[in-house]
Design goal:
mainly alpha; Lysoplasmalogenase; 80% helix; 205 residues; transmembrane helix
Length: 205
């Protein structure tokens, strides 16, 4: 039931984005992360990451540079929570960490001239995002896929901030973001198990 409500909210949100109808987005977008938190069933690091994501989603519904920076700050909290939670499962492979590090450096170098006053905030945020995506590999392939999609979604936002948007970008941003949150939460639950068998390890993630 919880996931069906999440899927319903996701469908409403994507419809609102596709039709550029903001009332639908205001109704559905703030529900996405809380419904996944309900499905997660506990306040842990991943859960707190979802709380930060909810605040970020609301901030990004408001146009303007200040709400954009506020939303980025909230999602920085999400990335830090996810990163610490994932690292508790182990360290990512060196090649994975190196790959994401190179990707971070190349993308920031390419976009740097076009980002203006957003250069430093995006540099810092994208570093935490890339570290989270790399650390996700230490949990499971499902969580790793979620981490990659989160990075891809925010990369598309960064392209828009650099004036490099394309038709349908906003819809792709939301599809990849919704998929990322879903894969991360369900992947963590699958990795930890459910019920009393999961024990203390589940409570720490």
């Amino acid at each position: 039931m919880k996931l069906w409500l999440f899927f319903a909210a996701a469908a409403v949100e994507l419809t609102g984005v596709a039709l550029s109808w903001e009332p639908l987005q205001w109704v559905a977008k703030p529900l996405l992360a809380p419904l996944l938190l309900w499905h997660l069933g506990r306040f842990c690091l991943v859960g707190w990451g979802l709380v930060f994501a909810t605040a970020g989603d609301v901030a990004l519904l408001v146009p303007g540079t200040v709400p954009f920076l506020l939303g980025m700050a909230c999602f920085l909290g999400t990335q830090i929570c996810f990163l610490v939670a994932f690292l508790r499962h182990g360290r990512p492979r060196r090649l994975v960490a190196l790959g994401y590090g190179i990707l971070w450096a190349v993308l920031n170098a390419v976009l740097w001239p076009s980002l203006g006053d957003l250069r430093v905030p995006i540099l810092v945020y994208s570093l935490a995002l890339s570290a989270m995506a790399a650390a996700a590999w230490s949990v499971s392939p499902v969580v790793a896929a979620g981490g990659f999609l989160f990075l891809l979604s925010d990369l598309l936002i960064g392209l828009g901030a650099a004036g490099l948007g394309f038709p349908g970008r906003n819809l792709v941003v939301m599809v990849t973001y919704i998929a990322a949150l879903f894969l991360i939460v369900t992947g963590v639950l699958s990795r930890d198990g459910t019920g009393d068998r999961a024990g203390g390890r589940a409570a720490r993630a």
